[in-house]
Amino acid sequence: MLLYSNKILSDLQLKRLKEHKYSSSCQSLLDPAMQKFWNWFVTLVPMWMAPNLITIVGLIINILTSLVLIFYCPTATEEAPWWATMMCALGLFIYQTLDAIDGKQARRTQTSSPLGELFDHGCDSLSTVFVSVASCCAVQLGKYPGWMLFQCLCASTLFYCAHWQTYVSGTMQFGTIDVTEGQIVVMIVMLTSSLSSFLNMDIWSTSLIFVTLSQALTCFGAGCGLASLLSPGGTVDKILNSGAGKSGSTVAGTSVLSPASPLLLVILPAWVIAYRSDQAIYHNQPILYVLVFGLIAAKITNRLVVAHMCKSEIHHRDTALLAPLVLFLNQYFNTVIPESWLLNLAMVWVLFDLMRYCSGVCLEICNFLEVYLFKIVHTESSSATSQAQTGSSGGPTTRLRKKNSRN
Q: pTM higher than 0.70, yes or no?
């Protein structure tokens, strides 16, 4: 198996995952309006295109446009070219659209499976990291390092808590102001930065009494996030009082507080290592630093999603956490190794570990469910059904692959 010698998921976990049914509720302000566009757009997608292929194409575009912006703003203090921020806004819009229609394409082609849900959430976890960093670059938030670290960690924390609540209640719940609204706000910020750069203006440094406009924007985003977490009926309230398991426990029958420790093992070291460093590890390489901890957060979020879908306990130890542990121990022993070297090594390790885990989980699920990740197998039986449902003459599709038809 690619990059993995031992199985990640047990037979019991795979069996429970196969039985998993997606459950969600949505109170989003903008989703009803956007659904009309998404329902139209999915009809333009060829019937042969696999839903997961749609998702990964959107993610690649999102990450590449974010990396272009990061390239021109290596410390998030530089003014980016107007076209870079505009391209980043377009990349996010494309990702939002493709991410919204992958489930519709799955139902349209009868290829819905737990793998699709897991793959979708995994891509979302990566997009969250790169979009939060790119938004910092767009508003030059690197001029205020503490604010930048707060914003990036806040984005990862909110995403993790959303899946924590799902792990407890069994239902993904979208609030009045949620991911769709957040993405649209980020797009507006990107376009505003593009216009500002095009007109040679420095809008984000504008003083608003006590803070600059970029800091005020961070406060606004954090305020909305905290409100969704702490308000009555918010995420924290649902975590504590909406347990779907026995005696109010999680779907796996574990404590509703069990997912707290992996998150704390990311957030606390991120702050401690950044401000305890005598070599300014964060302040000298802010983008690389937040990417390292953001990708670690993405890894533990993926593990939480797997735990929810498999109704299994979430383990508190994770190989990705070796990176902050080594950085912390190096500081504890008076920085024996240059921190810039260790940070680059940490990035390599975190990327490798994340890809190893994600590829291993996907391959195990593909083998168990007998499905392909990025391909739809054509059969005559599914052709009639899909045409009857869509009213089109699109190509024949099926959800499962034949047991003997392997690459």
A: yes
